[in-house]
Amino acid sequence: MKVWAVANQKGGVGKTTTTTSLAGLLAQRGHSTLVVDLDPHGSLTSYFGFDPETIEPSAYDLFARAAQGSSDTIMLRPTAVKNLSLLPASTALATLDRQLGARSGMGLVVRRALQALSGRFEYALIDCPPMLGVLMVNALAACDRLLVPVQTEYLALKGLERMVHTLEMIQRSRSQPLPYTIVPTLFDRRTRASVESLEELRQRYPAQIWSEAIPVDTQFRDASRQGLPLTVVHPWSRGSQAYRRLLDEVLLPEAPAQAVAHE
Ligand SMILES: Nc1ncnc2c1ncn2[C@@H]1O[C@H](COP(=O)(O)OP(=O)(O)OP(=O)(O)O)[C@@H](O)[C@H]1O
Ligand SMILES: [Mg+2]
Q1: What pTM value is reported for the model?
Q2: Where in the chain are the domains?
Q3: Rounded distance, CA 36 to CA 76, Å?
Q4: 20 to 30 A Cα–Cα from 146, which one of 130, 137, 196, 213?
Q5: 90 DSSP 8-state letter
Q6: Does the C-beta of 39 come closer than 6 Å to ligand 1?
Q7: Is 217 a pocket residue for ligand 1 (Cβ < 6 Å)?
């Protein structure tokens, strides 16, 4: 099973949208795919029609059970999309850092849970919360590839630098280097902020950045209202086509992702 995490410490940059779009495409192509919601807000969980306030069991139970020394597998939820399952988030995840953060062994809970599921899925995509904590650490330890959506706006670089710094820290505790791809999002070629920030990102991270950008597409709102990936609802919209090209590039063995260690 291939595990991809979608992370950026900045909020509202398109992490959940990137997770649903890429997972939707993989599922549509016939790959059994799991999406894992590690954001206590549960946006991805809500997207697929579940209530993060009440849903049980959830990713929270992975941690609660691990703390008790149990390694039972967690019930997954089917989604309305064929081949696509969800490991939901519940709002209880917000209490984890306080409850378990300092306990040793808690950094590998998601990695172990996914290893136990590796026979069932070809891909697992993890949607991360916009802050550094035990959940993001788990996602970065569990994945073999990282996608970093970055909104094309002024100050985009600042948020990204924090994420790259986190990556460099994580890199030291991993046995394999973690390749990452920067995905420019919410690109509007009519605005100077979008055009200039994209240019700046390309100059600063020439080896890691995807050669294109995900455009602003109002159809994303329509898709989220329907609780389905955009690629399922409007497969030929600009946003869907852009995510399809991103997926094709990420799936290439020679994808333009560089390990942080090589920086
Ligand atoms: N390419 C796009 N075009 C138009 N709207 C978009 C696009 N990408 C994301 N959005 C919208 O922007 C908002 C934020 O996107 P999303 O929830 O994916 O970001 P996020 O990084 O997961 O946010 P958070 O940090 O809060 O979890 C959502 O309303 C989403 O529908
Ligand atoms: Mg999100």
Answers
A1: 0.95
A2: 2-262
A3: 10
A4: 196
A5: -
A6: yes
A7: yes
